[in-house]
Every structure is written in structure tokens, then in C-alpha cells.
């Protein structure tokens, strides 16, 4: 289940397959639907560069790198 929209995720859904946060100190194992986490990270709102669960920074503003697996 996606922690953003609370909808189910499945490998058969091309837009909402499970994506795990990876290689970010302090934020491990949080899983979101791909379409939800991409929308979250690109919406331009305050805190949109952070994990929706723990608020750890996921996008390095200087490198523009996303830490998704």
C-alpha cells in the first residue's frame, strides 16, 4: 500500500509500482507508488524534496539527484 495515496501498488500497474527509498542515511525502507513519489518530489511545494514519511532530504539541491530504488 502506498503511504501517500493509500492505494494498492502492483508490478502490473505501469504507473504505480512500488519504489523504495535507497541510499539515504536516516531514511530506509519507505516504499511508495512510483507516480505518487514522483509527483511528491516534483510538485515544487515546500518540503517536496523530502521523504513523505520521515522528512529526510531525498534530493540534493546541488546535484539534483534522487535516491530511489
Automatic annotation (TrEMBL):
Organism listed in the record: Clohesyomyces aquaticus
Signal peptide stretch: none
UniProt key word Methyltransferase: no
Gene Ontology MF, one: zinc ion binding
Entry keyword Secreted: no
Keywords (A to Z) from UniProt: Metal-binding, Zinc, Zinc-finger
Protein name: RING-type domain-containing protein
Domain called RING-type: residue spans: 2-55
Superkingdom assignment: Eukaryota
Pfam families (alphabetical): zf-RING_2
Amino acid at each position: 500500500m502506498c503511504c501517500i495515496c493509500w492505494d494498492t501498488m502492483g508490478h502490473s500497474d505501469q504507473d504505480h509500482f512500488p519504489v523504495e527509498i535507497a541510499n539515504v542515511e536516516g531514511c530506509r525502507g519507505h516504499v511508495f507508488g512510483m507516480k505518487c513519489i514522483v509527483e511528491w518530489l516534483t510538485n515544487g511545494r515546500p518540503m517536496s524534496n523530502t521523504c513523505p514519511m520521515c522528512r529526510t532530504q531525498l534530493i540534493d539541491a546541488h546535484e539534483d539527484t534522487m535516491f530511489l530504488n
